[in-house]
Design a protein that fits this description.
Strand content: 15-25%
Structural class: alpha/beta
Low-confidence stretches: 1-74, 578-594
Radius of gyration: 31 Å
Number of strands: 19
Shape: elongated
Number of helices: 18
Distance between the termini: 21 Å
Bound molecules: BIS(adenosine)-5'-pentaphosphate
């Protein structure tokens, strides 16, 4: 089996936005399961604007200047969640936590109705008799309330969390008619006897909407305790009636949402219940993001003019033709990624002249690549900031990574063309929040890297925070920790740094493959140019035809960057299970690739 290596390490709240008194012209004769009513017409209370939701509870490229490149929107739609369960199963409690983490707009029909009741509106007066009896309020009222709320802007932007709705088949059908479908339908299951205890012991803070319990969740202080109230429908008798009605309707609603239903055991601590809810929602979001990314990639024109790997890559210096071949490839990949709305991009290109671990590394080639990219965006009218990190460290240890020494000077003195791009459309800066100007459209960062014992990530993070939705392109970054003798970088915030580094998406990747421990001969190459897959090539000598001739043959493609084992297996003609761990000898190479 061939063994390859790369010489480079790869790898509840405010309902204030409810619109002013919304006239609700209720649907006529439809009715809730057992609480049918005649045609109704109400005006919802303006008091809804002040409910506390804690219980009641040009494109991604746009910079401040709003000009720039056309973008295909790669964002996923906001999350839509329904939470259901018997009275006191913990819906409101979980909603509070869901809103905090996922920022959804919480729409609780119970809360909306209670607000109407306390404001003494027509709706409130009508709803009160049903609620106090532990019965469902007529569908017409509730449907109209929810429909209006769902049509508001914040819901469209942030997504929604429907709590206690739909509660009847008619309500579910009302949503279906409007084509309002949740992504996920969560049902909290809790035994009846527990529910009764929870209801009878529940207390509500009328000021914040926060839910307490006389045994399970005590108020934080005496002041809150003093103002707690008990809901009128929280008596044992009424809870039993509410429970009965819930059971009568549950089956008919389930029929509508059975495909997306997730049952959660609600008879555990609220934190444990939330952990499960959280992982269901997070998992859903993750899958949705992957699916939408795939969709986006499919919809993008490939525009890949790549003519295959150029040959004679071992001949140093590379010819102008070879260099330009790569510059064009990198440029097109960044353009496609930016057009797709990507803003945190990473380019890794380690042809021999750009591989700092080889003795033929040429800073001039890196500068030329930067110039091609910067000038191209400047030609499109963008203001480009080319950034090189400054000195790091303190005292006698001050300095900068060797491969960046003198880089800024070279950038300043190099030929940027005759039409005055430099100082106008292209500016040179360093890395940090202070280097982000209002006028800058795109940032190109030259090989940002950690130095021994010094970490560039904080400056980088400050810079990307300031850049907001403007694209930041890292060219050949090296963001792995390089521990210094003090050992500081080994321990402090390592996970966060790695997580941050991983937030940049590879839009271009090219590296040559060699036998382990060598840098000759070239055995193959790995290339990815957004939005295409990783392509694995094998280099073949064509000695029989003409001495010294070579070509690259496409061996395999991968959705994600293949690890060393997958590369080896592809060379061996084997398929490999990605989840299989590398072990022993292979594990060593895997760690090299890291
Ligand atoms: P609504 O307010 O929706 O009442 P509900 O569905 O009966 O639910 P609850 O608010 O009682 O309980 P919950 O599941 O939110 O539990 P909570 O988190 O508060 O509706 C009230 C009325 O409005 C209805 O009866 C009806 O008349 C009307 N209505 C509403 N929507 C309608 C619709 N769509 N159609 C028609 N009519 C409608 O927790 C309960 C207690 O348990 C708290 O004390 C809490 O601290 C405690 N607790 C929560 N989680 C845990 C846990 N994990 N462990 C221990 N204790 C916990």
């Amino acid at each position: 089996m061939l063994q390859f290596h790369s010489t480079v390490a790869p790898k509840r709240a405010n309902l204030s936005s409810i619109s002013p008194p919304y006239a609700v012209s209720c649907l006529s004769s439809s009715s809730s399961s057992s609480q049918s009513s005649s045609s109704l017409s109400f005006a919802l209370s303006p008091s809804l604007h002040h409910l506390s939701l804690s219980r009641v509870s040009k494109s991604p490229l746009s910079s401040p200047k709003q000009k720039r490149i056309n973008v295909i929107n790669g964002q996923t739609q906001p999350l839509k969640v329904m939470i259901s369960g018997a009275p006191a199963s913990g819906k409101g409690t979980q909603c509070e936590m869901i809103v905090k983490k996922f920022g959804l707009v919480h729409i609780s029909t119970g809360d909306l109705l209670r607000a109407e009741v306390s404001a003494g509106t027509d709706i409130g007066n009508k709803a009160k008799e049903y609620m106090n009896a532990g019965r469902l309020v007529p569908d017409e009222i509730v449907n109209a309330m929810v429909t209006t709320r769902l049509s508001l802007k914040d819901v469209k932007e942030k997504g929604w969390l429907l709590d206690g709705y739909p509660r009847s088949f008619v309500q579910a059908q009302s949503l279906e008619t409007l084509n309002v479908k949740p992504d996920i339908y969560i049902v909290l299951n809790v035994p009846d006897e527990i529910l009764i205890d929870r209801c009878v012991g529940r207390r509500l803070d009328p000021l914040t909407g926060k839910i307490y319990h006389i045994k399970n969740f005590l108020p934080e202080n005496e002041e809150i305790k003093e103002r707690l109230i008990t809901r009128a429908d929280d008596t044992e008798e009424k809870v039993k009636s509410r429970l009965e009605i819930y059971k009568q309707n549950a089956e008919s609603i389930l029929a509508t949402y059975k495909d997306i239903m997730k049952k959660v055991d609600g008879n555990r601590s609220k934190e444990v219940v939330f952990n499960e809810v959280d992982s269901l929602l997070s998992q859903f979001l993750k899958e949705k993001a992957i699916a939408s990314e795939k969709q986006l990639k499919k919809s993008l024109p490939r525009q890949d003019n790549w003519r295959g790997i150029p040959t004679r890559l071992n001949n140093i210096p590379h010819t102008r033709e070879i260099r330009e071949y790569f510059y064009a490839d990198v440029l097109q990949a960044t353009q496609r990624a930016i057009s797709a709305g990507k803003t945190r991009l990473r380019v890794d290109i380690t042809i021999p002249e750009l591989n700092p671990e080889m003795d033929v590394y040429r800073i001039g080639t890196l500068m030329e690549l930067i110039r091609v990219i910067a000038l191209s965006y400047a030609d499109d009218g963008k203001r480009v900031k080319v950034c090189v990190q400054g000195s790091m460290g303190e005292g006698a240890l001050v300095g900068m990574p060797l491969q960046l020494a003198g880089t800024r000077k070279i950038l300043e003195f190099m030929d940027w063309g005759d039409y005055g791009a430099i100082g106008n459309f292209i500016n040179i800066g360093s890395i940090g929040a202070n280097d982000v100007g209002e006028e800058d459209d795109i940032f190109i960062l030259v090989a940002p890297q950690n130095a021994m014992g010094n970490c560039i990530i904080d400056d980088l993070r400050a810079m990307t925070d300031s850049a907001g939705s403007r694209p930041v392109i890292l060219i050949n970054p090296r963001l792995k920790d390089l521990p210094g003798s003090s050992g500081v970088m080994q321990t402090m915030g390592r996970d966060k740094r790695l997580e941050y580094a991983a937030s940049f998406e590879n839009c271009y990747h090219f590296r040559l493959l060699y036998y382990a421990g060598t840098q000759y001969p070239i055995m193959g190459a790995l290339r990815m140019a957004y939005p295409n897959e990783y392509q694995l090539y094998k280099r073949v000598d064509e000695e029989e035809e003409a001495a010294g001739k070579e070509k690259y043959i496409l061996l395999s493609t991968f959705e994600q960057r293949p690890d060393v084992n997958e590369i080896n297996d592809a060379f061996d003609g084997k398929k490999r299970n990605r989840d299989k761990d590398a072990s022993g000898f292979w594990a060593f190479f895997n760690s090299v690739f890291g």
